[in-house]
Task: inverse folding
């Protein structure tokens, strides 16, 4: 039993080590967003109107090279700068479209899966953000 717990802790530590690079990249993107993008721009894009802000967030999030670990700090930075919850969720859903996720999809389900994922990130993000914004 003790050996099993040690193995679980060891594997957890390995996952943290692997994810830390991507989290740091997400923090870097969040810092760049906070410094480079004026708050007026964020207010105009992500605060005004529920549907409009969700569509902007999913459109802007899709081409960003963030993985599912790195998108969390970037989305938190957007939320702290005033993005509404629907826009934040749309950004979270639409962003993880990086190469590594596409490669894993291709290995698991083939080329058609990759194209489906690539084309569905923005619409899925917009749908998730609209669902949250409607409540």
Result:
């Amino acid at each position: 039993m003790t050996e099993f717990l040690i193995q679980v802790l060891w594997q957890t530590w390995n996952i943290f080590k692997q994810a830390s690079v991507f989290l740091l990249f997400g923090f870097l993107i969040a810092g760049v967003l906070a410094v480079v993008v004026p708050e007026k721009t964020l207010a105009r894009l992500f605060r005004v109107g529920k549907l409009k802000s969700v569509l902007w967030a999913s459109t802007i999030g899709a081409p960003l090279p963030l993985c599912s670990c790195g998108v969390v700090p970037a989305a938190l930075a957007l939320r702290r700068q005033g993005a509404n919850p629907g826009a934040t969720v749309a950004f979270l859903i639409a962003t993880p479209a990086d190469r590594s996720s596409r490669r894993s999809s291709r290995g698991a389900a083939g080329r058609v899966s990759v194209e489906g994922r690539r084309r569905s990130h923005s619409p899925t993000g917009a749908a998730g953000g609209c669902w949250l914004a409607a409540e």
In short: The chain has a mean pLDDT of 75. The chain has one domain: 2-134. Residues 55 and 90 are 8 Å apart (CA to CA). Helices lie at 2-36, 39-47, 50-61, 71-80, 85-94, 99-109, 111-134.
